[in-house]
Amino acid sequence: MKRILSTFKEKWPEYFLEILVLIIGIYGAFELANYGENRNRKRAELEILKGCKTELVTDLAEINFNRSELRKSENALNLVLEVLENDGSYHDSLASHFIYTLLPIHFVHSTSSFETAKSKGLDIISNAEIRNKLIAVYDSQYDFFLKAEQEELAEVQHNMRTILPSRFESGFNFLGKDNTFEGSMVPLDFESLKRDQEYLYFIKTQQNRARSYIGYFYDNLRKSVESMIQDLEVEIKRLDR
């Protein structure tokens, strides 16, 4: 025992140095592993945020296109109603307005990058404010909008089956030009539409729906997506330094 203590007294600086080197090595390896993990996590976060931004930019273009088509629908409904209520005469150009009284518009969008974030755990998005805003856009506003769209499309299909068949030659006569809804829909008896209360109710209701769809659903969605894109641009620049 005395020999051990004597040896320790003589060599404690050497033992201490060895222990210190071992501790530094373990700590260094731990820090290196943390650095690599944090770097990979940051790279994954950046990839997700950039993906979300790219998809939202595409979604915004879709929103603006659909909104412009709905504006055409609103203008067509206003014109058709004005002609009918003021005992106007039929002319061939009215057929291009009748086709816009019902639009089967779908909001084509992508949520793949956000779904990737959810699969990895949403805490991969380190900025809590950005994370909460993305949740609000995708899991709240998109869902709310798509439910309203389902109701609108169901109404379009119902009216195509019940209102239009006895009043027009055919529907869905779209030209397929530039992915718009341009085309024609020719009435069977234009004069009778002026006294057709069911059809006039349909036109006025569609007019109201178009206004609310543009002014509430699409305008609010557009504002949220534009704001989210701006926030993502700032956050991506911050993380990419």
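That was protein one. Protein two is written in the same sequence-then-structure order:
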Amino acid sequence: MTAAGADLFDEARIPTCWDAIAPAELTWLRLQAQWRAQVVAGTVELADVPASFCRSAIPDFPDYPVAAWWAMGFSPLPAGPAISLH
């Protein structure tokens, strides 16, 4: 944090309860940084990076408990028969 950021920081404004979107966004940003570091280090080719991490904007994640899984690239699928329309 910079000195200017420290002056603006107010601990009272930190939410006591996070929605499902915030952890998903933080997960996505962490994974994007890891992919970027691997590309810069030359251990991974840019073509091998999943397309969702090549974009500059954070995807719009739903306020739903599995949003963090979507941020990691997992798609939840039913284990058994499922109804497609509810």
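DSSP finds three helices and no strands in the chain. Keep this in mind for the problem set.
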